[in-house]
Amino acid sequence: MHNFLIKVGLRFEDPHDERRFMRSFVRGDLRFTQAAMVLGAIVYCAFAIWDWILDPVAWTTSFAIRGAVAGFVLLPLTALLFVPRAQRFAEWIYLIYCVVPGCVLSLIYLVIDRGFEHATAGMIIVILFVSTLLPLRLPSLMLFCISTWGVFITCESYATYLTEGLRFINNFEISFAYILSLYAVGAREFRARQQFRTAEALRIEKERSEASLVELRNTQGQLVQAEKLASLGQLVAGVAHEVSTPLGLALTTTTAMDGELSRLATTIQSGQVRRSELTQSIARMREGMKLLFDNHHRAADLVHSFKQVATDEADEERRSFDMCEWLCEIMSTLQPLLSRRGHQVSVHCEDGITADTYPGALAQVIRNLSLNAVIHGYPDRQIGEITIAVTRLDSARMRITVTDDGAGIDADDLPKVFDPFFTTRRDKGSTGLGLHIVFNLVVSTLKGQIDLASTPGDGTRVTLDLPLQPEALQPAA
């Protein structure tokens, strides 16, 4: 029987799944079922009116029996389902709730005069209630059918007043009611099991998808971090190269001045100091001091700018800053990297633009756009010009444009440039996250809009429309 139920889809092979299904099926709508059980008790007692019509003398006895069944069986069983521990035996409670009044109903028909001549309708109503309003499984309903039908046949055998052939008609009608109820309950249980299987499959697939999504996000986060570190590494290399030039000149000048100072000291110690030699030495030392000052000042400016950019990017807090001064600091760190490759960079900034936004995110955007133009706009080491312009759109918005005269972007690739991991230079080490990071920062952090226009062979133009304060405008793509 166990294997047969598994084959027809009325039982799960895994006991754990079977227990979980029973909990969901039997106790899924517990409050609705309790309401139906209360209604069933009321209807069971209300049919005493039918007994009164059939036998005005014996109806008080039948009513007392009905009331006793309702008061001592039906309602207590309904109340028992409020106890959490008793809910584990909910199906047995339902079965007792159905079997007791179904069996007692046959005894009531023995008490009432000519009761079995009208017994079919009452039995069918009980069967209808059990099969439609109570969440019984097919095996439990079969127990109900066997027990109640057995008691009905037994009690009916003691009825001596049945019309000829009525015994057969009663059992014929009741048997078909049982068959139909078994089919309805079996079909309902089968559909419920199919839905449970589907829900389980969806849950498992959802968990698998969520795990894959978490893994993908972790991987994407690592790649984004790697992209940021790579661009920062390029920035550090450019700044280090640029700083090494003034420091090298300062070291050379210091060495020359040390030699000049030694010669001057030797001349003074000899006592043969000529005015012309002293004047020339002072002039050379003055020139050397000027070179030292200029080169040290240049190195200090570069270090300050790099420190400011690093601080902005490490600090995610917003602050108010002048766009022109801020852009000069950013470009002073980018200029060494760009100029080392031979590119010309032009910066145009309208005076008086003060932004209250996130400088770290904006610096990341400018740097990614500039490096992206160098890497993708001039793939064969061509030399070009990159222009960065900042203008005020109105009192609440500004526009930043980054333009290059490089190779441009193919029309087929243009709709995909902001997609994560899309790149045309993966063989050169690109990850395809540079513009994706730009898009997310512009839309999510800076609450602005980004637009990219390009023609193959005629360069690329990226336009950023940003609010001077992030909460001033709603984000849009």
Automatic annotation (TrEMBL):
This is histidine kinase. Keywords: Kinase, Membrane, Transferase, Transmembrane, Transmembrane helix. It comes from Tardiphaga alba. PROSITE patterns: HIS_KIN. Its EC number is 2.7.13.3. It catalyses: ATP + protein L-histidine = ADP + protein N-phospho-L-histidine. InterPro entries: HATPase_C_sf (IPR036890), HATPase_dom (IPR003594), His_kinase_dom (IPR005467), HisK_dim/P_sf (IPR036097), Sig_transdc_His_kin-like_C (IPR004358). Pfam families: HATPase_c. The keyword Nucleotide-binding does not apply. It comes from the Bacteria. GO terms for molecular function: kinase activity. Residues 238-470 form the Histidine kinase domain. The chain crosses the membrane at residues 30-50, 62-83, 92-112, 118-136, 168-187. SMART domains: HATPase_c. It is an enzyme of class 2 (transferase). SUPFAM superfamilies: ATPase domain of HSP90 chaperone/DNA topoisomerase II/histidine kinase, Homodimeric domain of signal transducing histidine kinase.
